[in-house]
């Protein structure tokens, strides 16, 4: 899915019961966490693991964000 200044992709591995969500953004007009939280609400995974990589603003930062499924609107 193409978004303004970003993109969202889901890589699936059904033989392993695994899917990887990638949400790439640039600029400050998009909050990638909103997209991830929404996708969690839609997909309802049993477990989640998250890494947030902050690039292009000096040294690479790796953060483990808090994930929460938002209510579907």
From TrEMBL:
It comes from the Bacteria. Its cofactor is pyruvate. Keywords: Autocatalytic cleavage, Decarboxylase, Lyase, Polyamine biosynthesis, Pyruvate, S-adenosyl-L-methionine, Schiff base, Spermidine biosynthesis, Zymogen. Its EC number is 4.1.1.50. GO terms for biological process: spermidine biosynthetic process. One of its GO terms (molecular function) is adenosylmethionine decarboxylase activity. Pfam families: AdoMet_dc. InterPro entries: AdoMetDC_fam_prok (IPR003826), S-AdoMet_deCO2ase_core (IPR016067), S-AdoMet_deCOase_pro-enz (IPR017716). Gene3D superfamilies: S-adenosylmethionine decarboxylase (3.60.90.10). Transmembrane segments: none annotated. One of its GO terms (cellular component) is cytosol. The keyword Lyase applies. NCBIfam families: SAM_DCase_Bsu. This is S-adenosylmethionine decarboxylase proenzyme, prokaryotic class 1B.
């Amino acid at each position: 899915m193409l978004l303004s200044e970003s993109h969202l992709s889901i890589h699936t591995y059904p033989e392993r019961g695994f899917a990887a969500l990638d949400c790439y953004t640039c600029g400050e007009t998009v909050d990638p966490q909103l997209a991830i939280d929404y996708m969690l609400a839609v997909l309802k995974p049993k477990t989640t693991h998250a890494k947030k990589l902050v690039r292009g603003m000096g040294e690479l930062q790796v953060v483990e964000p808090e994930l929460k499924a938002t209510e579907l609107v």
